[in-house]
């Protein structure tokens, strides 16, 4: 069984700034301090933020799925020109529940000089015998990450303007 959930949010920041946050390792560096209700730790296992980078995400209790507190994800696509990043869970998390694919994609589209759209997508595939677990997939963590990014970028913009 294949499924997909998406979320879009207009960001009041240039696409280049949104991409700087979501396109590499920056997001992982700031979410632990800024979103402790979601993330306990984000560890860089290998890589520099490009394709092949592997992160271990340790989630706050109840964020991921009841049976799991962490997973490893691999950056499978980082397209700086099109501003698309894809990551796939390669260990733990949803894979422990019969999913054969759990992919997260961030895509940043320029809307105007000071505005852009962040589109967040989860694509998943789950084994037939585990299709009931598809109900565990939620766009809500992506909504939280998008809203966080919007607030974070606006706060940084305001700080720059007052200096």
TrEMBL record:
Bet v I/Major latex protein domain ranges (all copies): 3-132
Family matches, as CDD domains: Bet_v1-like (cd07816)
Pfam families cross-referenced by the UniProt entry: Bet_v_1
GO biological process: alkaloid metabolic process
The entry's keywords: Alkaloid metabolism
Taxonomy, superkingdom: Eukaryota
UniProt keyword Lipid biosynthesis present: no
Family: Belongs to the BetVI family.
Protein name, as recorded: Bet v I/Major latex protein domain-containing protein
Organism listed in the record: Flemingia macrophylla
């Amino acid at each position: 069984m294949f499924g997909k959930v998406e979320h879009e949010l207009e960001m009041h920041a240039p696409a280049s700034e949104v991409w700087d946050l979501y396109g590499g390792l920056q997001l992982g560096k700031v979410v632990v301090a800024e979103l402790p209700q979601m993330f306990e730790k984000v560890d860089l296992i290998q890589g520099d933020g490009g394709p092949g980078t592997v992160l271990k995400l340790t989630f706050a209790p109840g964020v991921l799925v009841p049976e799991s507190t962490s997973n490893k994800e691999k950056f499978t696509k980082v397209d700086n020109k099109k501003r698309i990043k894809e990551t796939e869970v390669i260990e733990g998390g949803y894979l422990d529940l019969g999913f054969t694919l759990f992919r997260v994609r961030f895509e940043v589209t320029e809307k105007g000089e000071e505005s852009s759209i962040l589109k967040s997508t989860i694509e998943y595939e789950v084994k037939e015998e585990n299709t009931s677990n598809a109900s565990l997939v939620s766009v809500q963590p992506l909504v939280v990450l998008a809203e966080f990014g919007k607030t974070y970028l606006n706060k940084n913009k305001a700080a720059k303007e007052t200096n």
